[in-house]
Design goal:
1278 residues; four-stranded antiparallel sheet; cytoplasm; Beta-prop_ELP1_1st
């Protein structure tokens, strides 16, 4: 739903005496333009026109019949190729200004055209002969053009009947009659036309066929071989022809019996659709058809046919058409008088949206257009309307009310003339249209009637014309669309920017006054001369600021005091932006105006900061800047992040994937919907979770709880956010919540989802980043008193408001707090029916019997059970009831009171239901039951391998021998020796026990602990020293050697061990360094392969975008909208089911993620597996720092300097390698501090975006924390 907006236009009157400026060509290298009127060659330079060469002296030989048929600049040789109708071929060098004759065709020529790469020249003679030449003018092929020639692509008759019996649609039965005469239009010049396909592989020759006396075309390949011919029964074609850039479609025009059409042909000559021109049949002739570079705009140049009267409204017309959703829109119309008709039209060879044209009076006009989404501003009664121009029709669709896909619309306003501009009011939903005859029509948005649907009263709105005026400006240049921009700032104020007769631009302020006849009177209030060229404008209704962007990207801000005054001109975009806007955000102290724009080359700017370099569309919402990009992603940036964006890029807050090629049209302010348009033109309405949560936050902050609940029901949002967003505020305003909802079912729905979990740190953690700073993603929220506090207060409020109305809410609160007895008594008080099994938990048999009688249970089922219970002792009866209800803690409390005779049943209950801690509470440590339960508890802990805790439990119960075995298993040597001492074992048994614990510690490499046992408990200093040396505890070993005066250990054990340990560490460092280099090299290879694949996909996506739009079948057109979230009233699963499903899916995804991350070469996530291995390698070597430091100090102490230096240097080298390459491994996108775009930065960011770090565990997402050199490096050798 894009409109073609005029951004800027320039006009200059060329000082030439000719009215035949029909030929133009461009030198893109030198930025020069050359024009010819068949008599002279002119060079355009600024406002000046220089005559380069006079053709009448020799080349055209003063013959009226001899004229230029080809005038084209050849880039490689800096020559202008001049070919005339007599057949002369000449080259004019623009540097030396000399002419060189290169050949002549004796038969004369009717058409000539160079291929796009200027390697081949195609010529058609006056005798319908085709000549193909090289760039050196050597003949490649020469042949006669005839419909009888054999073609490569012959039509195949599939038996669908003859031409006369086929259905002809709106053409009627007249189309069946073949005409053999007057197939050529009277105004046809009977000259051939040549048009190359933009890739240079084929070209089409449009010629007069003498056999059928009609225009036909044939398609030839690059070698001059005939490929195809137009289908036989297509007649009355006009001479204009062009080949569409993005698709192999040949475009020309045709006169049928009842309409004038633009028709498309495939390369094989078969017709492929078209559209009808808004001209009466036979009135207008088409002089030219031109596609722009990206094939998004079709320019049609037409003028009155010779036989028609000049009194017609249509004179010399330029029309710009575009197609969306299989409908052709007339976007712009330029109407010229016949006394100053258009003589030449062409698109710029480099800029897709720049149009050049010349008129008969020597005018040269340059128009620059741009695609925009013409949406209304978020003002009073905002309804998300978007306006479209379609010839005389203004198509308006308010997307807040209805989503209607183009070409349909909710409102269709037909104007008396073609529309050039639609401008929205900046204070309400009114708009104005600017017609091609300079009339301005004003339309008011009003309430037409009240419509009732499904018993609801709905207001129906419409538009009505309430005024018009002809915009006359005394100093305005006299050409079409010299009025560049219109800004409707207030109900009575209109701003106009136009080009003056002095070729400058003025900003005029008009006051509008309505007259009695309904017309407006414009009274000029002020006029400002702009000393720059205005490219685009926008007005912010909030701050009343006018922003004008100049052609060099600078934007100027104006604010009205007594007159419009310039307040800022110090910022500029790096590129001009056809899509441009200004908006206001609130800062801590005041408001700030921010300009946002998207360039023609997909750059998105906010003030002078480039936000994205692949943006395809954007929109400024109340809370976010939304934009789509070429990765088919809709991204969101909070406006609060733009307050101090400064010179740094701003990272997006969240994102969501969209369909390929989708572009954002509008996001409904104060709503949750976004309207996206697909490449073919159909629309989709989506509700991104970011906007949904943003709206919920606003509703909760403003106590609009009913709106919030309805939004959560519609979009299936977890209702815990009501409380977790601001717990204190919600509890304080809980009464307002209940009164607004006023529905027990809705409140119960909220209670079913309520949990103690803080959802702002789980479900909604991405929407509350300030609450999750420094917290790991997988960290679980701590349990709180959220449920108890909320339910307790909610019960009090419901009882105070209406106890009977909110009775179910009160019961749900008790159930949520697991206080079923209180809920039961509430039911009993109201004489309701509940489950008999729950009533039994009250131990009141009268109540149980009363409820059971009113239930649907059979008395045969419950009466015997109740009778058995009555026979039991009271405490044992309570135990049976609690056990039946699976309330095992209460059951234990009751059975303990029954005495020692139930000890066996107590032990069975404790062991079966793991109530060890509860059971120990009822006994003293000296009781036998305390010891039995402790033994069961220790056995349970031992099964879980909690040996140390089990030993402590047994030690507390004075079961020391069993505790000794458990302490041995746990390697807790202090407690093991403590128990041995308490057992007072004989010396030989004591030594055996110590040997057991020593063997256990040695197997676990705990040599320091072994040394302590040998020294302190066995008086074996020699063994203690050896264990310290074996465990590399050098300082402790040296200390003990000196303490015991055993200096012989230095030579026999310590020094050899130091040298051996140094060699082992060097080998480990070398091994892991080689492993690191191998993985790093492979990671670079994988990323390079992925980058090449991604670049290829992006190129294919660009190529496919237009093809996707054109190739889709008409049957795929859909006028339905798509809502990603379920609608209100849809069935909803219970909270428990949703929670369990979510949990299971989460675990399943976690397992799948781990299985997918594999080191297997060529696997999908090989790069992630490599990053994990690299991280583990770095972490392991970082952990060696203590061993390195300890060994280095000992080597230094014993003067082993060489060994120490070698170890230090080797470790420092590998640490430097890690720190140098870590930024390459964890290559997150960088922010370019410079304004200039760097291709190197683009490549780095492309490589970074290919690695999805989110699939890794938290510890692998960032480099391991580096070790400081102070923790391991000796500075003695520096």
């Amino acid at each position: 739903m894009n409109d073609l907006k005029l951004l800027i236009s320039f006009e200059k009157c060329l000082n030439v005496s000719s009215d035949r400026l029909e030929l133009i060509t461009f030198d893109t290298n030198m930025n020069a333009s050359y024009v010819s009127d068949h008599n002279r060659i002119y060079e355009l330079s600024g406002q000046n026109v220089e005559v380069l060469f006079d053709l009448r002296d020799d080349f055209l030989a003063n013959s009226d019949d001899n004229k230029l048929i080809l005038f084209q600049f050849l880039t490689e040789s800096n020559n202008l190729c001049l070919i005339n109708s007599k057949g002369d071929l000449n080259l004019f060098n623009v540097l030396s200004k000399t002419v060189e004759g290169v050949g002549s065709i004796s038969d004369g020529l009717s058409a000539a055209q160079w291929s796009p790469d200027q390697e081949l020249l195609a010529l058609v003679t006056t005798t319908n002969a085709l000549i193909l030449m090289t760039k050196d003018f050597d003949i490649v092929t020469e042949q006669k053009i005839s419909l009888e020639n054999v073609v490569e692509s012959e039509f195949v008759n599939v038996g669908w009947g003859s031409f006369e019996t086929q259905f002809k649609g709106s053409a009627g039965k007249h189309a069946v009659k073949e005409k053999t005469e007057d197939q050529i239009l009277s105004w046809d010049d009977r000259q051939a036309r040549i048009c190359w396909r933009p890739d240079g592989e084929y070209f089409v020759v449009h010629f007069i066929d003498p056999l059928t006396n009609s225009r036909k075309f044939q398609v030839f390949n690059r070698e001059g071989v005939l490929h195809s011919t137009i289908e036989k029964n297509v007649n009355i074609l006009e001479a204009a022809i062009d080949w569409k850039y993005s698709k192999s479609l040949i475009t020309t025009s045709i006169h049928r019996f009842n309409k004038h059409e633009i028709i498309f042909f495939e390369r094989n000559g078969l017709a492929h659709g078209g559209f009808t021109l808004p001209f009466p049949i036979g009135q207008m002739k088409i002089n030219g058809i031109y596609w722009n570079l990206d094939s998004s705009i079709l320019c049609i140049w037409s003028e009155l046919a010779e036989k028609n009267s000049s009194n017609s409204e249509n004179k010399s017309i330029i029309q710009l058409w575009s197609m969306s959703n299989y409908h052709w829109y007339l976007k712009q119309t330029l109407n010229f008088e016949m006394n100053n008709k258009v003589t030449s039209v062409c698109w710029d060879p480099e800029d897709s949206f720049k149009l050049h044209l010349f008129t008969q009076n020597g005018q040269y006009i340059n128009y620059k257009f741009g695609w925009i989404v013409n949406y209304c501003k978020p003002v009073e009664d905002f309804n998300g309307s978007i306006a479209l121009i379609d010839g005389c029709n203004a198509l308006i669709t308010p997307f807040k009310n209805k989503v209607i896909p183009p070409p349909m619309s909710l409102h269709k306003i037909t104007c008396p003339k073609q529309i050039n501009k639609i401008v929205w009011s900046n204070c309400n939903m009114d708009f104005l249209v600017y017609l091609m005859n300079s009339d301005v029509l004003f339309y008011r948005y009003y309430k037409a009637k009240d419509e009732i649907q499904n018993g609801l009263k709905l207001g129906t709105y419409n538009y009505e014309l309430f005024g018009q005026v002809n915009l006359e400006l005394e100093n305005k240049k006299d050409y079409n669309l010299s009025v560049q921009h219109l800004i409707w700032t207030s109900p009575n104020e209109l701003l106009v920017i136009y080009e003056t007769k002095k070729s400058t631009f003025d900003l005029v302020e008009f006051e509008m006054e309505k007259k009695v006849d309904g017309k407006f009177l414009l009274r000029k209030k002020s006029e400002i001369n702009l000393n720059y060229e205005p490219f685009n404008t926008d007005f912010d209704p909030k701050s009343k600021t006018l922003a004008i962007q100049s052609t060099n990207g600078t934007f100027y801000k104006y604010r009205k005091e007594s007159i419009w005054t310039l307040i800022s001109d110090d910022l500029r975009f790096l590129q001009t932006c056809p899509n441009f806007g200004i908006f206001t955000i609130d800062t801590d102290k005041n408001q700030r105006d921010i300009c946002v724009g998207m360039s023609q080359f997909y750059r998105l700017y906010v003030d002078k900061v480039e936000i994205a370099n692949n943006c395809t569309s954007y929109y400024v919402h109340d809370e976010f800047l939304l934009y789509t990009d070429h990765t088919n992603t809709l991204k969101f940036i909070s406006l609060s992040k733009l307050k101090d964006c400064g010179a740094k890029k701003v990272q997006e807050e969240s994102l969501r994937k969209v369909e390929r090629g989708a572009k954002l049209l509008i996001a409904l302010n104060s709503g949750t919907g976004c309207v996206l348009q697909m490449p073919r033109g159909n629309l989709e309405l989506v509700h991104p979770r970011t906007l949904v949560v943003s709206k919920l936050k606003a509703d909760i902050d403003n106590f609009r709880y009913l709106n919030a609940v309805e939004t959560m029901r519609k979009h299936r949002v977890n209702m815990n956010i009501l409380y977790d967003h601001n717990p204190t505020s919600f509890l304080d305003n809980l009464t307002i919540f209940v009164k607004q909802i006023d529905n027990a079912n809705l409140i119960n729905l909220f209670l079913t989802e309520l949990s103690d979990e803080d959802t702002t740190q789980s479900f909604f953690k991405d929407h509350y980043p300030e609450r999750n700073i420094g917290k790991k993603d997988e960290q679980k929220s701590k349990s709180s008193t959220k449920l108890t506090n909320l339910c307790t207060k909610l019960i009090d409020i419901c009882e105070n408001i209406d106890k009977s109305k909110f009775f179910l809410v009160i019961l749900s609160c008790y159930a949520k707090m697991k206080e079923l007895e209180k809920a039961l008594y509430r039911v009993i008080q109201c004489k309701s029916v509940s489950q008999a099994s729950v009533d039994e938990g009250t131990y009141d048999f009268d109540v149980v019997l009363m409820v059971a009688e009113k239930s649907q249970k059979d008395p045969k089922e419950y009466l015997p059970f109740l009778n058995e219970l009555k026979k039991l002792e009271e405490n044992y009866r309570k135990f049976k009831i609690d056990f039946y209800l699976k309330r095992y803690k209460k059951a234990l409390q009751s059975i303990v009171k029954c005495g020692d005779e139930q000890n066996n049943e107590i032990l069975k209950l404790v062991d079966n239901h793991k109530l060890y801690s509860e059971g120990l509470k009822y006994y003293k440590p000296t009781d036998e039951m305390f010891k039995k339960i402790s033994k069961l508890f220790a056995s349970h802990l031992g099964e879980k391998k909690y040996y140390e805790e089990a030993g402590l439990i047994l030690m507390r119960a004075e079961q020391l021998e069993d505790a000794l075995d458990l302490f041995l298993k746990s390697s807790n040597w202090q407690m093991f020796i403590n128990v041995c001492l308490r057992l007072k074992l004989p010396s030989h048994l004591y030594s055996e026990k110590l040997s057991l614990i020593l063997d256990k510690l040695k197997s676990e490499n705990k040599f320091l602990e072994c040394a302590q046992i040998y020294e302190n408990y066995m008086n074996d200093t020699e063994s203690a020293i050896l264990n310290l040396i074996n465990g590399s505890h050098w300082s402790e070993a040296i200390t003990l050697i000196h303490k015991s005066d055993r200096f012989d250990f230095f030579e026999t054990n310590l020094l050899p061990s130091l040298k051996t340990n140094q060699v082992d560490l060097l080998k480990i460092i070398e091994q892991y360094e080689n492993k690191f280099k191998e993985y790093k090299e492979r990671l670079d290879q994988v990323r390079e392969e992925k980058a090449k694949k991604k670049e290829k996909e992006m190129l294919d996506e660009f190529d496919d975008e237009n093809r996707h739009r054109d190739d889709l079948s008409m049957s795929e057109m859909s006028n339905s909208t798509f809502d990603t979230e379920s609608q209100a009233g849809s069935t909803r699963s219970s909270a428990s089911t949703v929670a369990s499903t979510f949990s299971n899916k989460s675990k399943r995804r976690s397992r799948q993620k781990k299985s997918l991350i594999s080191l297997k070469k060529g696997s999908q996530f090989e790069d992630l597996a490599l990053i994990q291995e690299l991280s583990d390698t770095i972490s392991y070597l970082y952990k060696l720092k203590d061993s390195i430091f300890s060994l280095s100090k000992s080597l230094l102490l014993f003067n082993l300097n060489d060994l120490c230096v070698e170890l230090q240097n080797q470790y420092e080298s590998v640490i430097d390698l890690f720190e140098r390459t870590s930024s390459q491994i964890w290559n997150y996108p960088t922010q370019n501090e410079n304004e200039n775009f760097s291709f190197q930065t683009y490549q780095q960011n492309l490589m970074a975006n290919l690695t999805d770090f989110s699939k890794l565990e938290i510890k692998y997402r960032y480099p391991p924390e580096s070790v400081g050199k102070r923790s391991w490096k000796l500075h003695f050798y520096e």
